[in-house]
Design goal:
By secondary structure, the chain is α+β, with helices and mostly antiparallel strands. It is built from 4 helices and 7 strands; from the N terminus they run E-H-H-E-E-E-H-E-H-E-E. Strands 1-2-3-4-5-7-6 form a 7-stranded mixed beta sheet, with helices on both faces. The N and C termini lie far apart (about 35 Å).
Length: about 160
């Protein structure tokens, strides 16, 4: 399998990255939410290009010269991490998460829907621990879970590590 490169996204890649985000998020949400909880495609695309791209560092996972994943980071928060559906479970998500850990060596946080079992398993398998539960705003209006990754020897949760 060709190696995955994770790098900062080039400005010219914004539209393809927004398309990848749209394919990934709508495919995911259609499997766990009711139709009325899912936004229109143009709303997801506008959110990615006008909010995420403006307020975050954008990174892409590239295989064979083609973007296969996109990640948005703001400080210690991974705000978005999506892999193109045909590329899932082929290492792109893990490669982006490894890059995020390099960028934020003192710890990371991420929020996902509790019903997104695949994401929960993914983050837990990479050393993240749940530390809070809440509810996402409408239209999703679903229970969510906050995860935190702390490097070994560091403890943001206040528990002693052995």
């Amino acid at each position: 399998m060709p190696k995955i490169e994770v790098r900062r996204m080039f400005p010219a890649e914004l539209a393809p990255a927004a398309d990848l985000y749209l394919r990934s998020i709508t495919g995911l949400l259609q499997g766990i939410l009711k139709p009325e909880q899912i936004r229109a495609d143009h709303e997801y695309r506008r959110y990615f290009t006008n909010v995420v791209a403006r307020d975050h560092e954008l990174w892409v996972a590239v295989r064979d010269g083609h973007p296969v994943g996109v990640m948005a980071i703001a400080n210690e928060w991974i705000d978005q991490l999506y892999v193109d559906p045909p590329e899932q479970r082929r290492g792109a998500g893990s490669a982006m998460l490894a890059q995020a850990k390099t960028l934020s060596p003192n710890g990371l946080r991420v929020l996902t829907l509790q019903r997104n079992a695949a994401a929960c398993r993914f983050y837990e398998a990479h050393g993240f621990e749940a530390y809070d539960r809440g509810r996402s705003p409408p239209p999703e209006d679903e229970p969510d879970v906050s995860y935190r990754w702390c490097p070994r020897g560091d403890d943001h949760a206040g528990k002693a590590r052995r």
